[in-house]
Fold this sequence. Notes:
Keywords: Leucine-rich repeat, Nucleus, Repeat
Protein name: Acidic leucine-rich nuclear phosphoprotein 32 family member
Strand order of the largest sheet: 1-2-3-4-5-6
Pfam families: LRR_9
Function: Multifunctional protein that is involved in the regulation of many processes.
Number of domains: 2
GO molecular function: histone binding
Helix content: 40-55%
Distance between the termini: 143 Å
CATH class of the largest domain: Alpha Beta
Amino acid sequence: xERERDRAPEPEVKELVLDNCRSNEGKIEGLTDEFxxxxxxxxxxxxxxxxxNLPKLTKxxxxxxxxxxxxxxxxxxxxxxxxxxxxxxxxxxIKDLSTIEPxxxxxxxxxxxxxxxxxxxxxxxxxxxxxxxxxxTYLDGYDQEDREAPDSDAEGDGDGVDDEDExxxxxxxxxxxxxxxxxxxxxxxEDExxxEGEEDExxxxxxxxxxxxxDGEAxxxxxxxxxxxx
Length: 230
């Protein structure tokens, strides 16, 4: 008992992915009531033939059971996972509508996937399933009007983060380009100032030469006047 008291409490696991972990007896193994906070469980391709060992998971919203060998016993889901909203049974051995009839008890079920199950070959398959499970919004990714289901919230957030990163990178590149343009303009202005300065110096030098020449001419004229007076 003392050891049990000293032991740290189990973390609250909300998502659990067990894909490709082979089940020895075709049953769910290792899951206990300690996972009562679980909201998402994925057991894709683990060789399941039954969901009978599923513990009570009242908070479970999404359950992935695709690519297994389940052929019945779905009444357990209504009992153990009463708040399911998304259920994926694609690639299982579900052959007729009576197999999925127990899902009527899942009042919150909004999305059901039955891809690659024999039941999809039945005449008027989609109409029959929507009639059997009126709480459904999406069957195999589409609603009754053949409108595709939107992406999951998790994927949406993931995209938003990427977009933000790309926007930030784009802004940084624009800033760098603006800085480079500013430096080039500044260099061009300096070059223009230097050229103007050189031209001004040339003009001044030319004016000095003209003044000097004029002074020289004036001196010559004075000498000529003196000679005439003598």
